[in-house]
Every structure is written in structure tokens, then in C-alpha cells.
TrEMBL record:
Record-linked SMART domains: MeTrc
GO function terms (MF aspect): protein-glutamate O-methyltransferase activity
Keyword Ligase attributed: no
CDD domains the record matches: AdoMet_MTases
GO BP: methylation
Species of provenance: Acidothermus cellulolyticus (strain ATCC 43068 / DSM 8971 / 11B)
SUPFAM superfamilies linked: Chemotaxis receptor methyltransferase CheR, N-terminal domain, S-adenosyl-L-methionine-dependent methyltransferases
Name of the protein this chain belongs to: protein-glutamate O-methyltransferase
Keyword Kinase: no
Leader sequence segment: none
Residue segments, region Disordered: 272-293
Annotated keywords: Methyltransferase, S-adenosyl-L-methionine, Transferase
Amino acid sequence: MTINGWAFTYVADLVKQMTAINLGPGKEYLVENRLAPLAREAGFRDVAALIGRVQASGDERLRRQIVEALTTNETSFFRDREPFTVLRQVVIPDLCRRRAGTRRITIWSAGCSSGQEPYSIAMTVIDHPLITSEWSVEILATDVSEEMLAKAKSGRYSQLEVNRGLPAPLLVRHFERCETDWRVVAPVRNLVRFQKLNLAEDFNLPFVDVVFLRNVLIYFDTPTKIDVLRRVREVLRPDGYLFLGGSETTLGLDDAFDRLVAGAGTFYRPRGAGMPEVAGDEPPVGGGAGPRFGTAAPMAARGSAVQASINPLGRR
Ligand SMILES: C[S@@+](CC[C@H](N)C(=O)[O-])C[C@H]1O[C@@H](n2cnc3c(N)ncnc32)[C@H](O)[C@@H]1O
């Protein structure tokens, strides 16, 4: 390892200041490994030399590249499956009922990485029997990483990437061949609007009905998590829905959210929104085997302020 404590602190402060990502002590190896390719490409002897140059010159381009290299962009299509099953079986039917007057639904994928999440949402929406041509659905997809946004906008994925989580029928229906890769077809791409947005700064967004904020909060410290959740709540409609990553929660951070469980899926609603009213019993997204909605979750509270299980017939 070439970096010393001082260089590590400089990088950790830079990343924290620009993204709120918390690189605590013990992440020296991560910094070294992530910055080594950048140092090589930019012609530096090693990572320490790269950091030394940035410290001395304040080179804005190198600073941005360092921050980009230290964002974790791991993602896949229909990641964890359940949120998309809940979106299809609970959220869309409920919102179609609630928004019957305007026929407008807005979904925000915050921290969208290379786009698999917002395109999974778009495929779920476009294939949904209740979303007819009279409906206007907008999916806003944001990230702090310009590199990830550029890839996401292209809608182009390798065979390896589509193999991760994308059911074959959806690949056939919503992708076209692009040399050895696959590209999301225009009708699905056009549902998604990509925008650079730093969650650590004010959002200035219109109200949204659903927020996917998945596997992003884990990189922030507790005060930042609290602040981001509060501001997400301010743009989420009072009867909206929030999805977090499997290891994330609002518990202990924002008690103005209620935690709800449907089958194997967990989601959050602003306190007082209560249980969604849905009917029907549709198969999991993409068809095939998967968690059946409303069969698994017990009513027992699991430490949340309010937790309830629901089933597709609205019975508890
Ligand atoms: C691990 S990925 C999660 C992608 C996707 N949500 C999922 O669950 O598969 C985390 C993403 O959050 C983004 N991110 C990190 N800090 C951010 C910030 N302050 N504002 C916006 N996005 C941020 C990263 O660039 C990265 O693309």
C-alpha cells in the first residue's frame, strides 16, 4: 500500500464533502485498490503520487475522477426481486385507484447507478395491465456519478449484465441486439429521465409517488441518513411509497415512516398513509416461481413503529 494516513484522510474528506459517502477508518485498502487503475491511466507512479498531485494542484478533473472511483455502483436488474413484485402487485394497483383522476404517476430511482433499477421499474410499468395508454408515468432516475448516468442513458448492457436478474421473456420483449451487447428498446428507455442529483444536497424536485432509494443509505453516516430520509419524505406524497435496500431501514432514523410487509417484500409509507387497498393476485414479475404476495409475512411487530402484513385481497 502506498498511501499514508494523511493521504487517506484527504481522500475520505474529499469524498465525504462531494457525496456524503463515509469512508471510515479501515477503508485504506479500498481507496488504494479503487484508485490504482486511475493512477496508472493518468500516468502516476502510484496512488500516493496521484493524491499528492491533487492535493498540490486542486485539479478539478482528477478530484472528480477520484470521487467517481470511490462510489460503489453494484446493481442488477430486478435486484432482490421482492421490491418489484410489491411494485407490481401492490403499489401500481393502489396508485391506479388513487390517481384515477389525474392518471399520472411519478417514480424516482435515487442512486440509480448504471440504470438496471429504473429500467426494471420501467418494464414493470409498461407490462402492467392497469397502465393503459391513458396513463402518464414518469420515472426519474438520478445519481451523483456522471459516468454511471452516461452508461444508464445508453441503455446498453453486456450479456453478463442481462444474465444477472433479467427474466428471459423480458429480455426478448424489451431489448434489442446491439453488436455483442443488448440495448433497452426505445419505448422503455423513453419512460426514464436521467438527471445528475447529489442526495447530500437539496433536491428541489416535484412531488413523487414512489421512491426507490435502495442500497445508497448504507454508504452514509447516521446524521446524513436522517437528513436524506427527511428530505425524501418531503418530496414523497403523503400516500406514497418508499423502497430501501435489504440492509437498510428507517427505524431509529425517521419515525415518520411506517414499515409494511407484503409477502417477502418490505416497504415504507409516510406515517398515516396506512395500508394500501389492492385486489387481485398476480404472478411475480417476469413470471415463474417467486414469493407469492401476502402469504409469508406475520403480523407480529418487528421493532417498527407500525408494521403490518397485507395480502392481495386486502384481508389482514
Ligand atoms: C450500490 S449502488 C445502488 C444502485 C441501485 N439503487 C441498486 O440498488 O441496485 C449506489 C449508487 O448510489 C450512488 N450514490 C452514492 N452517493 C450518492 C449521493 N450522494 N447522491 C446520489 N447518488 C449517490 C452511487 O454513485 C451508486 O451508483
